[in-house]
Amino acid sequence: MTIEMSETFDTQTLLERINALESRVNELEAHPAQGIEDRVAMVVFSGELDKAIAAFIIATGAASMGLEVSMFFTFWGLNAVKKQKIFTGKDLLEQGFTAMLPGKLGETGLSQMNFFGAGAQIIRGLMRKHDVSSPEELFGLAQELGVRMVVCDMSRELLGVRDAELVDGLETGGVATFLGDAARAKVTLFI
């Protein structure tokens, strides 16, 4: 008899829990997750030509589809948004980074088969031959389409990149800026 009461109690408890779970599922279905928007958030960690091309193609494609797009440029990804090299006003280490890193998107190499810069020239030639927009044109189109481009403050400081070295019209921000965009995004990418 004790076993039957125990089974009855367990069955009743399980039924109550099932009812509570069904109620919660119905509530969640009636009020889907708030804050998820038609947005793409992207970390651009690499400034190599092929990866920058991919990042800008995805960004412009998403923006053309009506999605809000934010690109967060960090570490080597800064190379994709630089316009020049400046050595003055920097310490020795910062000058070293400036000397070793590309000064602008047009000076970046490929991540594979770069062949001392020849690979980048081949890819650019193929892009012209196949009527594909250049990386610089893709960057301009991204700006025209309202893509939010944020430069990581910490990376900029660590690498000694000055504001005057960056393309005009960029924002600066920290990881919280990116995470704020990513938390609301349907798609988050790391390039």
Automatic annotation (TrEMBL):
SUPFAM superfamilies: DsrEFH-like. The keyword Membrane applies. InterPro entries: DsrE2-like (IPR032836), DsrEFH-like (IPR027396). The keyword Transferase does not apply. The chain crosses the membrane at residues 52-78. Keywords: Membrane, Transmembrane, Transmembrane helix. This is NADH dehydrogenase.
